Amino acid sequence: MANNIEVKDLLEAGVHFGHLTRKWNPNMAPYIYMERNGIHVINLYKTAAKLEEANEALKKIAASGRKILFVATKKQAKDIVAEKAGGVNMPYITERWPGGMLTNFVTIRKAVKKMAAIDRMKKDGTFDTLSKKEKLQVDRLRAKLEKNLGSISDMTRLPGAIFIVDTMREHIAVKEAQKLNIPIFAMVDTNSDPREVDYVIPSNDDASKSIEKILTHVTAAVSEGLVERKADKDAEKADKEAAEQEEMQAEIAAKEKKAKALESSDDND
Fold first, then answer.
1. Is residue 19 a contact partner of residue 39, using CB atoms and an 8 Å limit?
2. Structure confidence at residue 239 (pLDDT)
3. The pTM is what?
4. Strand order across the 32-36 sheet
5. C-alpha distances in angstroms, 13 versus 92, 96, 142, 160, 214?
6. Which of 35, 45, 139, 152 is surrounded by the most beta carbons within 10 Å?
7. What is the residue-wise DSSP string for 11-47?
8. What confidence tens digit (pLDDT) does each residue in 28-65 have?
9. Among the listed ranges 83-87, 136-140, 151-155, which one has the minimum average pLDDT value?
């Protein structure tokens, strides 16, 4: 993978800092290196290995054309997730998790369609024909939908995976994904339960530097998957065009052969 994971970089970003020892979840024991001054220290070699494993899986999902939904509603993670997920054109939610986002997706889609309809109005000039009061109402509705639904306007079906920062805070999202068997990737701190997650990335999920470091690696893997998908599509297109060209040339050759045969027949007559 192009974006190599260095333990030194993870250390500098503070990815190893866990929670107070009294707040720990015993199921995180395999990922804890030691205890220092009443705080658990995460084993960064295990973090690097787990991050590599998660990245490979995310790369495959992105290459398959499925979406990965990023979820982080805590203050220090919002802007980072919006920037990183948005940068690879993946949907994200950084405000309140809308209950039923996954389990009642049909209802959520209605709200998404309303948001998309407003965007179309602004593009095709319909919005400009509205009165000042109507424009204000439409803008307010769009802002409300954007706040509640994040960037999921182009999510036409359930995501192929969900990436979560802080599984304890986003416990509703975790439960919904589990119910629908959607793979869960997550930054899991020492106070969380790793058994709820399919791809555990043991890491500090509170510090912005740590969140940014993990998200940088994760979205780089997603980007690689998207590049692979584009290359495959381009190759498919080239093969199709080549096959069509061959077929056309074969048809021309057949017609020329037929014309020559007719000419030869006429000469014999």
1. yes
2. 67
3. 0.82
4. 17-20, 39-42, 32-36
5. 23, 27, 37, 29, 9
6. 152
7. HHTTTTEEEEGGG--GGGGGGEEEEETTEEEE-HHHH
8. 999 999 999 999 999 999 999 999 999 999 999 999 99
9. 151-155
